[in-house]
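Limitations

Structures in this collection are predictions, not experimental determinations, and the ligand pose is part of the prediction. Treat each record accordingly. The example that follows, with glutamic acid as the small molecule, is included so readers can see exactly what is and is not provided: the inputs are given verbatim, and the output is the predicted complex.
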Amino acid sequence: MTDAPTSPVRVRFCPSPTGNPHVGLIRTALFNWAFVRHLGGTFVFRIEDTDVSRDSKESYDTMLDVMRWLGLDWDEGPEVGGPLGPYRQSERYDIYEDVAAQLLAAGRAYHCYCSHAELEERNARARAEGRTPGYDGHCRDLTADQVSAYGAEGRQPVVRFRMPDNTITFHDLVRGEISFASEHVRDYVLVRANGHPLYTLVNPVDDALMEITHVLRGEDLLSSTPRQIALYDAMAEIGVGSGKTPQFGHLPYVMGQGNKKLSKRDPESSLLGYRVRGFLPEGLLNYLALLGWAIAEDRDIFSMDEMVESFTIDRVNPNPARFDMKKCEAINASHLRALSVDDLAERVIPYLQAAGLVADPVSPPERALIVAAAPLILERMTTLGEAVDMIGFLFVPEAEFTVDLDDAAKLLESDGVAVVRAAYDALNVVQSWDTPSIELALRTKLVEEMQLKPRHAFGPVRVAVTGRRISPPLFESLELLGRERSLSRLSLLLVG
Ligand code: GLU
Ligand code: ZN
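Predicted complex:
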Protein backbone atom coordinates (compact mmCIF):
# COMPACT_ATOMS: atom_id res chain seq x y z
CA MET A 1 0.00 0.00 0.00
CA THR A 2 1.18 3.45 -0.82
CA ASP A 3 0.31 6.76 0.78
CA ALA A 4 -2.96 8.57 0.17
CA PRO A 5 -3.30 9.47 -3.50
CA THR A 6 -2.08 12.89 -4.50
CA SER A 7 -3.79 12.77 -7.88
CA PRO A 8 -7.35 11.91 -8.96
CA VAL A 9 -5.97 9.55 -11.61
CA ARG A 10 -7.33 6.03 -11.19
CA VAL A 11 -6.31 3.05 -13.30
CA ARG A 12 -7.33 -0.55 -13.14
CA PHE A 13 -5.76 -3.89 -13.76
CA CYS A 14 -8.57 -6.36 -14.28
CA PRO A 15 -7.48 -9.85 -15.24
CA SER A 16 -9.79 -12.80 -15.58
CA PRO A 17 -8.61 -15.62 -13.33
CA THR A 18 -8.22 -18.19 -16.09
CA GLY A 19 -5.00 -20.10 -16.59
CA ASN A 20 -1.66 -18.74 -15.47
CA PRO A 21 -0.54 -15.12 -15.68
CA HIS A 22 1.36 -14.44 -18.88
CA VAL A 23 3.82 -11.89 -20.16
CA GLY A 24 1.31 -9.73 -22.04
CA LEU A 25 -0.97 -9.50 -19.04
CA ILE A 26 1.79 -8.54 -16.64
CA ARG A 27 3.19 -6.00 -19.09
CA THR A 28 -0.26 -4.39 -18.95
CA ALA A 29 -0.22 -4.48 -15.14
CA LEU A 30 3.25 -2.95 -15.08
CA PHE A 31 2.41 -0.08 -17.42
CA ASN A 32 -0.72 0.77 -15.44
CA TRP A 33 1.21 0.59 -12.21
CA ALA A 34 4.14 2.72 -13.39
CA PHE A 35 1.75 5.23 -14.95
CA VAL A 36 -0.27 5.70 -11.78
CA ARG A 37 2.68 5.60 -9.37
CA HIS A 38 4.36 8.29 -11.43
CA LEU A 39 1.29 10.49 -11.04
CA GLY A 40 0.50 9.60 -7.44
CA GLY A 41 -2.93 8.18 -8.27
CA THR A 42 -4.74 5.00 -7.35
CA PHE A 43 -4.11 1.51 -8.70
CA VAL A 44 -7.29 -0.56 -8.65
CA PHE A 45 -6.98 -4.32 -8.96
CA ARG A 46 -10.21 -5.95 -10.02
CA ILE A 47 -10.90 -9.59 -10.66
CA GLU A 48 -13.08 -10.25 -13.70
CA ASP A 49 -14.39 -13.61 -12.64
CA THR A 50 -17.72 -13.84 -14.40
CA ASP A 51 -16.82 -16.76 -16.63
CA VAL A 52 -17.83 -19.60 -14.37
CA SER A 53 -16.67 -22.26 -16.79
CA ARG A 54 -13.13 -20.93 -17.09
CA ASP A 55 -12.34 -19.13 -13.83
CA SER A 56 -10.51 -20.95 -11.09
CA LYS A 57 -9.52 -20.33 -7.51
CA GLU A 58 -6.04 -21.58 -8.29
CA SER A 59 -5.63 -19.02 -11.04
CA TYR A 60 -6.90 -16.27 -8.73
CA ASP A 61 -4.41 -17.24 -6.01
CA THR A 62 -1.58 -17.42 -8.52
CA MET A 63 -2.47 -14.00 -9.90
CA LEU A 64 -2.26 -12.36 -6.47
CA ASP A 65 0.88 -14.26 -5.66
CA VAL A 66 2.61 -13.17 -8.86
CA MET A 67 1.61 -9.54 -8.34
CA ARG A 68 3.03 -9.65 -4.81
CA TRP A 69 6.19 -11.39 -5.96
CA LEU A 70 6.72 -8.67 -8.55
CA GLY A 71 6.01 -5.90 -6.07
CA LEU A 72 3.16 -4.48 -8.17
CA ASP A 73 1.17 -3.29 -5.18
CA TRP A 74 -2.44 -2.18 -5.43
CA ASP A 75 -4.35 0.42 -3.46
CA GLU A 76 -7.81 -1.04 -3.86
CA GLY A 77 -8.74 -4.60 -4.66
CA PRO A 78 -8.71 -8.13 -3.34
CA GLU A 79 -7.49 -8.53 0.22
CA VAL A 80 -6.91 -4.78 0.69
CA GLY A 81 -10.51 -3.70 0.03
CA GLY A 82 -11.37 -0.08 -0.74
CA PRO A 83 -14.35 2.28 -0.88
CA LEU A 84 -15.71 1.20 -4.28
CA GLY A 85 -15.72 -2.57 -3.87
CA PRO A 86 -16.34 -5.38 -3.91
CA TYR A 87 -13.47 -5.87 -6.35
CA ARG A 88 -14.43 -9.30 -7.58
CA GLN A 89 -17.05 -9.22 -10.26
CA SER A 90 -18.59 -12.45 -9.03
CA GLU A 91 -19.73 -10.44 -6.00
CA ARG A 92 -21.34 -7.70 -8.07
CA TYR A 93 -24.06 -9.45 -10.05
CA ASP A 94 -26.87 -7.41 -8.49
CA ILE A 95 -25.17 -4.23 -9.72
CA TYR A 96 -25.00 -5.49 -13.30
CA GLU A 97 -28.61 -6.62 -13.22
CA ASP A 98 -29.65 -3.22 -12.01
CA VAL A 99 -27.67 -1.32 -14.67
CA ALA A 100 -29.01 -3.60 -17.42
CA ALA A 101 -32.56 -2.92 -16.22
CA GLN A 102 -31.93 0.82 -16.26
CA LEU A 103 -30.46 0.71 -19.76
CA LEU A 104 -33.53 -1.19 -20.95
CA ALA A 105 -35.88 1.26 -19.25
CA ALA A 106 -34.08 4.21 -20.84
CA GLY A 107 -34.25 2.58 -24.27
CA ARG A 108 -30.45 2.42 -24.53
CA ALA A 109 -30.70 -1.34 -24.67
CA TYR A 110 -33.41 -3.69 -25.86
CA HIS A 111 -34.43 -7.31 -25.82
CA CYS A 112 -33.33 -9.27 -28.84
CA TYR A 113 -35.05 -12.57 -29.59
CA CYS A 114 -33.10 -13.62 -32.67
CA SER A 115 -31.84 -17.17 -32.58
CA HIS A 116 -28.30 -18.08 -33.46
CA ALA A 117 -29.49 -19.72 -36.68
CA GLU A 118 -31.45 -16.62 -37.72
CA LEU A 119 -28.45 -14.37 -37.10
CA GLU A 120 -26.24 -16.70 -39.12
CA GLU A 121 -28.66 -16.80 -41.97
CA ARG A 122 -28.99 -13.01 -42.17
CA ASN A 123 -25.23 -12.63 -42.01
CA ALA A 124 -24.82 -15.06 -44.89
CA ARG A 125 -27.37 -13.12 -46.89
CA ALA A 126 -25.58 -9.83 -46.15
CA ARG A 127 -22.31 -11.30 -47.37
CA ALA A 128 -23.93 -12.64 -50.51
CA GLU A 129 -25.38 -9.22 -51.24
CA GLY A 130 -22.08 -7.48 -50.61
CA ARG A 131 -23.20 -5.79 -47.38
CA THR A 132 -21.15 -5.80 -44.15
CA PRO A 133 -22.37 -8.64 -41.94
CA GLY A 134 -23.21 -8.04 -38.28
CA TYR A 135 -26.31 -7.49 -36.22
CA ASP A 136 -28.88 -5.71 -38.37
CA GLY A 137 -31.07 -4.10 -35.72
CA HIS A 138 -33.86 -6.61 -36.28
CA CYS A 139 -35.27 -6.35 -32.73
CA ARG A 140 -34.59 -2.67 -32.12
CA ASP A 141 -38.21 -1.64 -32.31
CA LEU A 142 -40.39 -4.70 -31.89
CA THR A 143 -44.08 -4.11 -31.31
CA ALA A 144 -45.80 -5.45 -28.20
CA ASP A 145 -47.44 -8.09 -30.39
CA GLN A 146 -44.13 -9.29 -31.79
CA VAL A 147 -42.71 -9.49 -28.31
CA SER A 148 -45.59 -11.59 -27.02
CA ALA A 149 -45.40 -13.82 -30.08
CA TYR A 150 -41.72 -14.54 -29.38
CA GLY A 151 -42.60 -15.11 -25.74
CA ALA A 152 -45.29 -17.58 -26.74
CA GLU A 153 -42.67 -19.48 -28.75
CA GLY A 154 -40.71 -19.82 -25.54
CA ARG A 155 -37.83 -17.63 -26.71
CA GLN A 156 -35.64 -16.05 -24.03
CA PRO A 157 -34.17 -12.70 -25.13
CA VAL A 158 -30.65 -11.41 -24.78
CA VAL A 159 -30.12 -7.77 -23.80
CA ARG A 160 -28.57 -5.87 -26.67
CA PHE A 161 -27.03 -2.41 -26.52
CA ARG A 162 -28.37 0.12 -29.01
CA MET A 163 -25.34 1.68 -30.70
CA PRO A 164 -25.65 5.26 -31.92
CA ASP A 165 -25.61 5.74 -35.68
CA ASN A 166 -22.69 8.11 -35.75
CA THR A 167 -18.98 7.45 -36.24
CA ILE A 168 -17.15 7.16 -32.92
CA THR A 169 -13.84 8.96 -32.67
CA PHE A 170 -11.51 9.08 -29.71
CA HIS A 171 -7.99 10.08 -28.90
CA ASP A 172 -5.96 7.03 -28.00
CA LEU A 173 -3.12 7.90 -25.62
CA VAL A 174 -0.75 5.64 -27.54
CA ARG A 175 -2.04 5.64 -31.10
CA GLY A 176 -3.58 9.08 -31.55
CA GLU A 177 -6.95 9.67 -33.13
CA ILE A 178 -8.97 6.59 -33.98
CA SER A 179 -12.39 6.40 -35.66
CA PHE A 180 -14.89 3.59 -35.97
CA ALA A 181 -17.69 3.95 -38.52
CA SER A 182 -21.03 2.79 -37.15
CA GLU A 183 -21.43 0.04 -39.75
CA HIS A 184 -18.48 -1.70 -38.14
CA VAL A 185 -19.76 -1.39 -34.60
CA ARG A 186 -23.18 -3.02 -34.41
CA ASP A 187 -25.60 -3.40 -31.52
CA TYR A 188 -23.99 -5.93 -29.19
CA VAL A 189 -25.05 -8.31 -26.44
CA LEU A 190 -24.73 -7.17 -22.82
CA VAL A 191 -26.62 -9.97 -21.08
CA ARG A 192 -27.12 -13.54 -22.23
CA ALA A 193 -30.55 -15.12 -22.53
CA ASN A 194 -29.93 -16.96 -19.26
CA GLY A 195 -29.43 -13.61 -17.52
CA HIS A 196 -25.65 -13.85 -17.31
CA PRO A 197 -23.92 -10.48 -17.91
CA LEU A 198 -20.98 -10.37 -20.31
CA TYR A 199 -17.60 -8.62 -20.32
CA THR A 200 -19.16 -6.02 -22.63
CA LEU A 201 -21.36 -4.86 -19.76
CA VAL A 202 -19.51 -5.63 -16.56
CA ASN A 203 -16.15 -4.18 -17.54
CA PRO A 204 -17.37 -0.66 -18.43
CA VAL A 205 -19.93 -0.65 -15.61
CA ASP A 206 -17.18 -1.33 -13.11
CA ASP A 207 -14.82 1.15 -14.75
CA ALA A 208 -17.58 3.75 -14.38
CA LEU A 209 -18.47 2.86 -10.79
CA MET A 210 -14.84 2.56 -9.74
CA GLU A 211 -14.24 6.00 -11.27
CA ILE A 212 -11.47 4.83 -13.56
CA THR A 213 -9.90 7.77 -15.40
CA HIS A 214 -7.45 5.92 -17.67
CA VAL A 215 -7.83 2.55 -19.33
CA LEU A 216 -4.48 1.16 -20.45
CA ARG A 217 -4.76 -2.27 -22.00
CA GLY A 218 -3.62 -4.44 -24.86
CA GLU A 219 -4.27 -3.60 -28.47
CA ASP A 220 -6.41 -6.73 -28.83
CA LEU A 221 -9.15 -4.84 -26.96
CA LEU A 222 -9.12 -1.83 -29.26
CA SER A 223 -12.28 -2.91 -31.08
CA SER A 224 -14.29 -2.96 -27.86
CA THR A 225 -13.46 0.68 -27.13
CA PRO A 226 -16.07 2.34 -29.39
CA ARG A 227 -18.73 0.11 -27.84
CA GLN A 228 -17.61 1.02 -24.38
CA ILE A 229 -17.50 4.72 -25.18
CA ALA A 230 -21.12 4.53 -26.35
CA LEU A 231 -22.05 2.64 -23.21
CA TYR A 232 -20.38 5.32 -21.08
CA ASP A 233 -22.60 7.92 -22.72
CA ALA A 234 -25.63 5.84 -21.89
CA MET A 235 -24.48 5.34 -18.32
CA ALA A 236 -23.90 9.08 -17.95
CA GLU A 237 -27.47 9.59 -19.10
CA ILE A 238 -28.93 7.19 -16.55
CA GLY A 239 -26.60 8.39 -13.79
CA VAL A 240 -24.28 5.38 -13.38
CA GLY A 241 -20.77 6.46 -12.39
CA SER A 242 -19.20 9.90 -12.55
CA GLY A 243 -20.43 10.58 -16.05
CA LYS A 244 -16.89 11.03 -17.34
CA THR A 245 -15.56 8.70 -20.01
CA PRO A 246 -12.04 7.50 -19.23
CA GLN A 247 -9.16 8.07 -21.58
CA PHE A 248 -7.98 4.99 -23.43
CA GLY A 249 -4.50 3.86 -24.39
CA HIS A 250 -3.84 0.59 -26.19
CA LEU A 251 -0.48 -1.02 -25.59
CA PRO A 252 1.35 -2.63 -28.50
CA TYR A 253 1.24 -6.31 -29.31
CA VAL A 254 4.09 -8.46 -28.12
CA MET A 255 5.50 -10.63 -30.89
CA GLY A 256 7.18 -13.96 -30.29
CA GLN A 257 9.06 -16.38 -32.52
CA GLY A 258 8.65 -16.03 -36.26
CA ASN A 259 6.95 -12.65 -35.89
CA LYS A 260 3.75 -14.21 -34.62
CA LYS A 261 1.90 -12.70 -31.70
CA LEU A 262 3.26 -14.13 -28.48
CA SER A 263 0.63 -16.57 -27.31
CA LYS A 264 -0.33 -17.43 -23.76
CA ARG A 265 0.76 -20.94 -24.56
CA ASP A 266 4.29 -20.07 -25.64
CA PRO A 267 6.68 -21.24 -22.93
CA GLU A 268 8.28 -17.81 -22.65
CA SER A 269 4.86 -16.40 -21.75
CA SER A 270 4.55 -18.11 -18.41
CA LEU A 271 5.24 -15.84 -15.47
CA LEU A 272 5.56 -18.81 -13.17
CA GLY A 273 8.27 -20.18 -15.46
CA TYR A 274 10.39 -17.11 -14.80
CA ARG A 275 9.96 -17.49 -11.11
CA VAL A 276 10.87 -21.16 -11.19
CA ARG A 277 14.01 -20.39 -13.20
CA GLY A 278 14.94 -17.72 -10.71
CA PHE A 279 14.48 -14.44 -12.50
CA LEU A 280 14.59 -11.49 -10.15
CA PRO A 281 11.32 -9.56 -10.05
CA GLU A 282 13.23 -6.36 -10.79
CA GLY A 283 15.04 -8.00 -13.71
CA LEU A 284 11.90 -9.41 -15.27
CA LEU A 285 9.97 -6.16 -14.82
CA ASN A 286 12.85 -4.21 -16.33
CA TYR A 287 12.62 -6.39 -19.41
CA LEU A 288 8.83 -6.24 -19.61
CA ALA A 289 9.06 -2.45 -19.42
CA LEU A 290 11.02 -2.51 -22.67
CA LEU A 291 8.12 -4.17 -24.47
CA GLY A 292 6.79 -0.90 -25.75
CA TRP A 293 8.58 1.67 -23.64
CA ALA A 294 12.10 3.02 -23.24
CA ILE A 295 13.58 5.02 -20.42
CA ALA A 296 16.08 6.67 -22.77
CA GLU A 297 17.84 5.91 -25.98
CA ASP A 298 20.73 3.49 -25.48
CA ARG A 299 19.69 2.59 -21.98
CA ASP A 300 18.27 -0.79 -21.08
CA ILE A 301 18.93 -1.26 -17.39
CA PHE A 302 16.92 0.56 -14.77
CA SER A 303 15.16 0.03 -11.48
CA MET A 304 11.43 0.19 -10.90
CA ASP A 305 11.93 3.43 -8.96
CA GLU A 306 13.58 4.89 -12.03
CA MET A 307 10.80 3.61 -14.23
CA VAL A 308 8.15 5.17 -12.00
CA GLU A 309 10.12 8.39 -11.94
CA SER A 310 10.11 8.76 -15.71
CA PHE A 311 7.14 6.78 -17.02
CA THR A 312 4.77 8.69 -19.26
CA ILE A 313 2.27 7.19 -21.64
CA ASP A 314 3.23 9.39 -24.57
CA ARG A 315 6.53 7.53 -24.73
CA VAL A 316 4.82 4.21 -25.31
CA ASN A 317 5.57 3.01 -28.81
CA PRO A 318 2.51 1.90 -30.81
CA ASN A 319 4.53 -0.53 -32.93
CA PRO A 320 4.61 -4.18 -31.99
CA ALA A 321 7.32 -5.11 -29.52
CA ARG A 322 9.41 -8.20 -30.04
CA PHE A 323 10.01 -10.59 -27.19
CA ASP A 324 13.67 -11.56 -27.02
CA MET A 325 14.55 -14.17 -24.42
CA LYS A 326 18.29 -13.59 -24.75
CA LYS A 327 17.83 -9.96 -23.92
CA CYS A 328 15.49 -10.78 -21.08
CA GLU A 329 18.16 -13.06 -19.60
CA ALA A 330 20.91 -10.53 -20.12
CA ILE A 331 18.92 -7.88 -18.30
CA ASN A 332 18.22 -10.23 -15.45
CA ALA A 333 21.91 -11.07 -15.24
CA SER A 334 22.74 -7.36 -14.91
CA HIS A 335 20.35 -7.04 -12.02
CA LEU A 336 21.86 -10.12 -10.42
CA ARG A 337 25.35 -8.68 -10.65
CA ALA A 338 24.15 -5.54 -8.90
CA LEU A 339 23.01 -7.47 -5.82
CA SER A 340 25.05 -7.46 -2.65
CA VAL A 341 26.54 -10.78 -1.65
CA ASP A 342 24.16 -11.07 1.29
CA ASP A 343 21.13 -10.27 -0.82
CA LEU A 344 22.14 -12.79 -3.45
CA ALA A 345 22.65 -15.43 -0.76
CA GLU A 346 19.19 -14.77 0.70
CA ARG A 347 17.56 -15.04 -2.70
CA VAL A 348 19.39 -18.21 -3.62
CA ILE A 349 18.30 -20.04 -0.47
CA PRO A 350 14.76 -20.92 -1.65
CA TYR A 351 16.19 -22.45 -4.83
CA LEU A 352 18.64 -24.59 -2.90
CA GLN A 353 15.80 -25.57 -0.60
CA ALA A 354 13.55 -26.49 -3.49
CA ALA A 355 16.33 -28.74 -4.78
CA GLY A 356 16.57 -30.37 -1.37
CA LEU A 357 20.16 -29.20 -0.88
CA VAL A 358 19.75 -27.13 2.28
CA ALA A 359 17.33 -27.33 5.17
CA ASP A 360 14.21 -25.22 5.56
CA PRO A 361 14.76 -23.11 7.59
CA VAL A 362 18.35 -22.90 6.48
CA SER A 363 20.88 -23.63 9.24
CA PRO A 364 23.52 -21.05 10.25
CA PRO A 365 26.44 -23.09 8.83
CA GLU A 366 24.53 -23.58 5.57
CA ARG A 367 23.83 -19.86 5.34
CA ALA A 368 27.48 -19.07 6.04
CA LEU A 369 28.54 -21.38 3.24
CA ILE A 370 26.06 -19.81 0.82
CA VAL A 371 27.30 -16.34 1.70
CA ALA A 372 30.89 -17.48 1.21
CA ALA A 373 30.05 -19.03 -2.17
CA ALA A 374 27.93 -16.10 -3.39
CA PRO A 375 30.85 -13.95 -4.66
CA LEU A 376 32.02 -16.88 -6.78
CA ILE A 377 28.77 -17.16 -8.69
CA LEU A 378 27.49 -13.58 -8.72
CA GLU A 379 29.21 -12.71 -11.98
CA ARG A 380 28.43 -15.99 -13.67
CA MET A 381 24.72 -16.33 -13.19
CA THR A 382 21.78 -15.48 -15.40
CA THR A 383 19.10 -16.72 -13.04
CA LEU A 384 19.02 -17.68 -9.37
CA GLY A 385 18.07 -21.26 -10.20
CA GLU A 386 21.51 -21.80 -11.73
CA ALA A 387 22.94 -21.69 -8.23
CA VAL A 388 21.67 -25.22 -7.75
CA ASP A 389 24.01 -26.53 -10.43
CA MET A 390 26.83 -24.15 -9.64
CA ILE A 391 27.19 -24.59 -5.90
CA GLY A 392 25.03 -27.60 -5.19
CA PHE A 393 28.22 -29.67 -4.82
CA LEU A 394 28.97 -27.82 -1.58
CA PHE A 395 25.76 -29.05 -0.01
CA VAL A 396 25.52 -32.64 -1.17
CA PRO A 397 26.28 -34.94 1.77
CA GLU A 398 29.40 -37.03 1.13
CA ALA A 399 27.44 -40.26 1.28
CA GLU A 400 25.33 -39.04 -1.65
CA PHE A 401 28.05 -37.39 -3.69
CA THR A 402 28.51 -38.98 -7.08
CA VAL A 403 30.33 -38.07 -10.22
CA ASP A 404 28.55 -38.64 -13.47
CA LEU A 405 31.12 -40.88 -15.05
CA ASP A 406 29.74 -40.50 -18.55
CA ASP A 407 30.09 -36.78 -18.28
CA ALA A 408 33.49 -37.09 -16.73
CA ALA A 409 34.83 -39.81 -19.01
CA LYS A 410 36.48 -37.39 -21.37
CA LEU A 411 38.42 -35.78 -18.60
CA LEU A 412 39.04 -38.86 -16.54
CA GLU A 413 40.65 -41.18 -19.02
CA SER A 414 43.72 -42.94 -17.66
CA ASP A 415 45.82 -39.78 -17.43
CA GLY A 416 42.91 -38.02 -15.72
CA VAL A 417 43.06 -40.54 -12.93
CA ALA A 418 46.80 -39.92 -12.67
CA VAL A 419 46.10 -36.21 -12.35
CA VAL A 420 43.56 -36.82 -9.61
CA ARG A 421 46.08 -38.98 -7.75
CA ALA A 422 48.76 -36.31 -8.00
CA ALA A 423 46.27 -33.65 -6.87
CA TYR A 424 45.35 -35.77 -3.90
CA ASP A 425 48.99 -36.10 -2.88
CA ALA A 426 49.62 -32.39 -3.33
CA LEU A 427 46.54 -31.31 -1.40
CA ASN A 428 47.06 -33.85 1.33
CA VAL A 429 50.14 -31.97 2.51
CA VAL A 430 48.86 -28.40 2.14
CA GLN A 431 49.51 -26.71 5.46
CA SER A 432 46.84 -24.09 5.62
CA TRP A 433 43.64 -24.79 3.69
CA ASP A 434 43.09 -21.53 1.84
CA THR A 435 42.80 -20.53 -1.79
CA PRO A 436 46.40 -19.30 -2.33
CA SER A 437 47.94 -22.38 -0.69
CA ILE A 438 45.66 -24.71 -2.61
CA GLU A 439 46.45 -22.98 -5.87
CA LEU A 440 50.19 -23.02 -5.20
CA ALA A 441 50.18 -26.71 -4.33
CA LEU A 442 48.20 -27.72 -7.42
CA ARG A 443 50.15 -25.51 -9.81
CA THR A 444 53.48 -26.69 -8.50
CA LYS A 445 52.57 -30.32 -8.74
CA LEU A 446 50.44 -30.48 -11.87
CA VAL A 447 51.60 -27.62 -14.06
CA GLU A 448 55.25 -27.31 -13.12
CA GLU A 449 56.27 -30.82 -12.21
CA MET A 450 53.96 -32.79 -14.49
CA GLN A 451 54.09 -30.14 -17.25
CA LEU A 452 50.33 -30.25 -17.84
CA LYS A 453 48.39 -27.52 -19.52
CA PRO A 454 46.14 -25.85 -16.90
CA ARG A 455 43.04 -27.25 -18.59
CA HIS A 456 44.34 -30.79 -18.43
CA ALA A 457 45.58 -30.26 -14.92
CA PHE A 458 42.53 -28.73 -13.31
CA GLY A 459 39.69 -30.21 -15.36
CA PRO A 460 39.88 -33.68 -13.79
CA VAL A 461 40.23 -32.19 -10.31
CA ARG A 462 37.17 -30.06 -10.90
CA VAL A 463 35.13 -33.03 -12.04
CA ALA A 464 36.32 -35.08 -9.09
CA VAL A 465 35.34 -32.59 -6.41
CA THR A 466 32.32 -30.85 -7.91
CA GLY A 467 30.95 -33.65 -10.05
CA ARG A 468 30.77 -31.22 -12.97
CA ARG A 469 32.92 -29.91 -15.76
CA ILE A 470 31.82 -26.38 -15.09
CA SER A 471 31.91 -24.89 -11.62
CA PRO A 472 32.88 -21.72 -9.84
CA PRO A 473 36.66 -21.11 -9.73
CA LEU A 474 38.36 -24.31 -8.64
CA PHE A 475 40.72 -23.20 -5.87
CA GLU A 476 38.03 -21.18 -4.12
CA SER A 477 35.64 -24.10 -4.49
CA LEU A 478 38.14 -26.42 -2.84
CA GLU A 479 38.62 -23.99 0.01
CA LEU A 480 34.87 -23.79 0.60
CA LEU A 481 34.44 -27.51 0.38
CA GLY A 482 37.13 -28.04 3.02
CA ARG A 483 40.11 -30.31 3.17
CA GLU A 484 38.39 -33.40 4.39
CA ARG A 485 35.57 -33.41 1.89
CA SER A 486 37.87 -32.46 -0.99
CA LEU A 487 40.27 -35.28 -0.25
CA SER A 488 37.51 -37.78 0.24
CA ARG A 489 35.98 -36.90 -3.10
CA LEU A 490 39.32 -37.16 -4.87
CA SER A 491 39.98 -40.54 -3.29
CA LEU A 492 36.54 -41.76 -4.34
CA LEU A 493 37.68 -41.67 -7.95
CA LEU A 494 40.93 -43.40 -7.18
CA VAL A 495 39.38 -46.46 -5.63
CA GLY A 496 36.40 -46.54 -7.98
N1 GLU B 1 -10.74 -9.10 -18.08
C1 GLU B 1 -10.34 -8.56 -19.33
C2 GLU B 1 -9.18 -9.34 -19.88
O1 GLU B 1 -8.42 -9.89 -19.08
C3 GLU B 1 -9.98 -7.10 -19.17
C4 GLU B 1 -9.88 -6.38 -20.45
C5 GLU B 1 -9.75 -4.88 -20.25
O2 GLU B 1 -8.70 -4.43 -19.76
O3 GLU B 1 -10.70 -4.18 -20.55
O4 GLU B 1 -8.99 -9.45 -21.05
ZN1 ZN C 1 -32.73 -9.65 -32.58
